[in-house]
Amino acid sequence: MRRTRTSRLTPLAVAVTGLALAATACGGTSADKAGDEAKEKNLGLAISYDVGGRGDQSFNDAAYSGMVKADEEFGYKSDDQEPSDGESDADKIARLGSLAKSGYNPVIGVGFAYAPAVKAAAAKYPKTTFGIIDDSTIEAKNVADLVFSEEQGSYLAGVAAAKATKTNTVGFVGGVDVPLIHKFEAGYAQGVKDTNPKVKVVRQYLTETAEEGGFSSPDKGKTAAEAQIEKGADVVYHAAGLSGQGVIQAAAAKKVWAIGVDSDQYKQAPLAKFKDSILTSATKDVGRAVYELAKSVRDKKPLSGVVRFDLKAGGVGITDTNPRYQQIAGLADAVAKAKQDIIDGKVTVATKP
User: Fold this and answer.
1) Whole-number Å distance between alpha carbons of 74 and 98
2) What DSSP letter does each residue of 205-272 carry, written as one string?
3) C-alpha triplet 149, 276, 182: angle, nearest 5°
4) How far apart are CA 198 and CA 69, in angstroms?
5) Nearest-angstrom CA–CA distance, 260 and 246
6) Could you tell me the pLDDT band of residue 59, with boundaries at 50, 70 and 90?
7) Calpha distance 132→54 (Å, rounded)
8) Which one-letter DSSP state was computed for residue 75?
């Protein structure tokens, strides 16, 4: 499988672009024709990463796992590409367009920041299916809006935190102060309160915008977690992408609990030396979303519109990989009950703090 990790156009993409321009000069090529050609020579899927890129042990790596599964199952030769620092929407549009021209289908933007680029690229290449993770604003026949009920998994994380705390103080570190991350905070705080109203939640967002490094700065995450631990927090949940590695490191150093996000961070090799401090992780199955979209295209029944992955569908949840999860009195039972209550509609989880 080919694994290129660059935000620049590949030689293949440059060559295709050059041919397209030359043919246009002769009056014979358009974006529609490029889309037809891509459909005929589909190489598999392509994903374009969010801030932090592959190796974040969280959100982007979850998307990558879905691509790997599709490659192994369907014999694809997929491609994954990294964002560049400070890139514009025009840069994203160019990257997505070059992938579609090169023969990849579907083409997936990982993260809500891709919304303008996916909308523009999808309009230009109607024969290619596009996907976007964590955005539901694009209405197009060839776009699948792959979204999750993050607040539900976070609620379960809050239940676990309330059961695990000994100080009656727990923390939340959000990467960027945006509506998506507010869902994580809201669910977590509600889960804590519903389980034990005496437990206090201290909260901090690392930055106002992604460009300031909220999702890509472990040092910022570490500093924030240390401050919360100083205030008495003995469980700290992060929704901060790569920055969350700093949260986990701080928790391990202070011998308190960390709760991971998106992927099962207890299993992540680069975090192995900290894993005993990772109580659980609130997961969202981004890999499954990527795989399902690729499969739908292969089956010639491409998904489109809003496709939601919630607790009932198994799209979100929390992990029990750490053996100590089962050893905390009442924790596993409380989480199991909360999960069933959400699925049965007895508990409605807030999406805003």
Assistant:
1) 22
2) EEESSGGGTTTT-HHHHHHHHHHHHHTT-SEEEEE-GGGHHHHHHHHHHHT-EEEEEES-GGG-GGGG
3) 25
4) 44
5) 11
6) confident
7) 17
8) T
Contact 79, 294 (CB under 8 A): no
Torsion on CA atoms 141, 22, 77, 60, rounded to nearest 10: -60
Q: Give the single-character DSSP code of 9.
A: P
Of residues 147, 12, 133, the one with CA closest to residue 77: 12
- What's the predicted TM-score (pTM) here? 0.83
How far, rounded to the nearest angstrom, does the alpha carbon of residue 45 sit from its chain's CA centroid? 17
pLDDT > 70 in the chain, percent: 88
With a pLDDT cut of 90, the percent of the chain lying above it is: 80
Q: Is a pLDDT exceeding 50 seen at residue 15?
A: no
Instruction: For 195, list phi and psi in degrees, rounded to 5.
Output: -85, -40
Structure-block tokens of residue 41: 């020579």
CA distance 41 to 103: 6
Could you give the CA distance from residue 134 to residue 285 in angstroms, rounded to a whole number?
12
